[in-house]
Amino acid sequence: MSFSMYSASAPVFKQILGGLSAIIDKAEAHAAEKKIEPDALLQARLYPDMFPFARQVQIACDFAKGSAARLGGIDVPKYDDTETTFADLKERIAKTLAFIASVPQDGIEASAGRDITTGSGEKTKQWKGQTYLIHYALPHFYFHATTAYDILRHNGVEIGKKDFVGSF
Amino acid sequence: MSFSMYSASAPVFKQILGGLSAIIDKAEAHAAEKKIEPDALLQARLYPDMFPFARQVQIACDFAKGSAARLGGIDVPKYDDTETTFADLKERIAKTLAFIASVPQDGIEASAGRDITTGSGEKTKQWKGQTYLIHYALPHFYFHATTAYDILRHNGVEIGKKDFVGSF
Question: Please, are residues A31 and A40 in contact by the beta-carbon 8 Å criterion?
């Protein structure tokens, strides 16, 4: 049984972003039930200089699409950060997952040794595909996905780790 | 360039737990400087029915050691959860990393198709090594490591994503 760059990336993004989408449904239902203004959750932060929930979701999507594109050897699509509602965020996730599904699987599969560049100017970094995925893309992706979860949990939305881990 | 079960597991745990250890140093220094009782951080939670910081660190360690052991085909060592100080938690991390380093690399390397069992009784689950690592061990590990970070950040410890991501 071989271990592959594809199976370590695209299905993981699908699993965790799928979980996040279902979590957003629960947040929306919670807000409706408790008569909470959606922005109280969408703009909630764990600390004043941290990103709010909505931004955490956007960035999690960005790491997922950016990784899939770079590993697949194609251009990273640019998404405008215009989401202001739970529905918008779910659409962002759906758009991200549709993009990832469109990246040719064999391109990602062959990417362990691919040269990958992130950042620009002084912050430019060079990676090999495998190192990029394991040590950069996944840690950043999980960081934002978990923080999005933690923000909602901190605000009383009834979700559990099972929701975060999702299904695959 | 081949992609390997080993490189997708042991070095990742080392990177993220190393970051967490350095974060604990910052939390300890912060508590000392601001005359904060250590337990105010060690026992801090994001919500009353969530685990506190110290427990999040213990569980992150458990997912790391459990994954390395199961993938390596050896018994999972049992750690008592007796940590009550920052120093104890750093020791727990150090002990975890020493254990992971002791697991034969070729055992982990050959584990993509290994049969792995988690849980017991009704919660018993059967996995293949690759699926276990990608879809179970890493999501749970990152979940607890990030939540540990988020708890400290929420309590004003001056840390950033760079600290979380660590180095490798």
Answer: yes
